[in-house]
Specification:
about 475 residues; alpha/beta; Rossmann fold; Isoleucyl-tRNA Synthetase, Domain 1; four-stranded antiparallel β-sheet; 15 helices; 15 strands; globular
Amino acid sequence: MIRLFDTMTRELRGLSPLDGEVFRFYCCGPTVYGPAHIGNFRTFVLQDVFRRTLELSGIKAYHVRNLTDVDDKTIRNSEAAGKSLKEFTDFWRDQFHEDCNKLNNLMPHLEPSAVEHIPHQIKMIEELVGKGNAYRSDDGSVYYKVSSFEDYGRLSRLDQRELRDGASGVVTDDEYEKDSVADFALWKGRREEDGDNYWESPWGQGRPGWHLECSAMCREYLGDTFDLHSGGVDLVFPHHENEIAQSEACTGCEMAEHWFHLTHLLVDGGKMSKSAGNFYTLNHVIEAGFSSAELRYVLISAHYRQSLNFVAKDKDGIENFPALSAARQALQRLAKFERSMQKVIGVDGDNGFEEAKKVGNLGTFAEALNALREDLNTPDALGRVFTAVKGLKAAAMTPEEAAVELAGFRVVMHALGIELPQEETSHVEIPTKITEKAHARWEAKQAKEWDEADRLREELAAAGWEVKDTKEGFEICPKN
């Protein structure tokens, strides 16, 4: 049994497919107008661990994740770049896929886009207008009438707070004409700044509102009611609240059986943003000398319902990423354990991996997988992995015992999506920034500026690199 916290009921609930066969779930995907940052990827990585845990528990999954390729940001940025909306969003879609692949995320079974489903969205709007849940404004926009949906706010407990100007999630000075500040756009009438990005509809030229796309695609591919809906906690209100209102007013059915939300990634204790100068992408991490596997380890190191503070700078404001350095050491320790088991067995190969998945014989590592089944407790799972690794001594094991433990270990690594370094840390490409800093340290040392040399050595160590002085100069290697 897998249990997961449900945002709607505020309790842990067991998961099983509504149809008894396939667990169908939907994840809100990226808006493809720029690079996804590591905060976005915390959500996608943990959703990936969830899917892997489902499948390793014998539950067949069907994973749908959308792409938002038409909204205010994609239109505004594509116009500024002088590119068509498709050319612009296709580029950022491909960048997103590349980052997902580097982070070892499984591709969803289906990845529909908003633009591909504009006819589906128009059809839903027509239904909502016909049922009295939506109305047309003078400028050709169509709004959802929140007061027409009695249960509006039950996901976010909105009845316990006041609706205020802007609560619909739309900035006031960008509003079209609507009857109430709580109402939200289903269709936006064409504006000059939209350029050529408009479609024909019964209400005139325009484009769909942001919230509608997910409702339309969920209904098309998962049905009126499906097993689970997921996204970042920031989507609870207004996005998911609005999805529920749209979908359930159309179908008369509960939209999703379970709601799975993931909490924010903080940077140096604050919210990640470009204006704050703490906006990090996967490329930033790689350029600093760390791997995507090390970043994935960091992103799963805290429970999904707890904020993860990604410390990026020291007290002097110098980037050093201590969590990534710790992740490097942890992965090397796990890789060393794997090699020790292989040495006892005497051969490589899957060593029972597929069989362990089928029969569930995970040896000492069974409790780590059970931790994932209990509210996707990734830190507990990692803790149990290291407890097992510490307690298993290769010298005292038979090849048969080592084969069972190695298979169980690899199953848990698969559940977590962790790819271990396959070789000792030699022949590693050294980032330019690290090389430059090492040269600066060497020059400071030659100039007998000892304090500066020591400071640079500490920065290199904090970034996960070690400098060894030689007769010819120095060598740079990853810190063990």
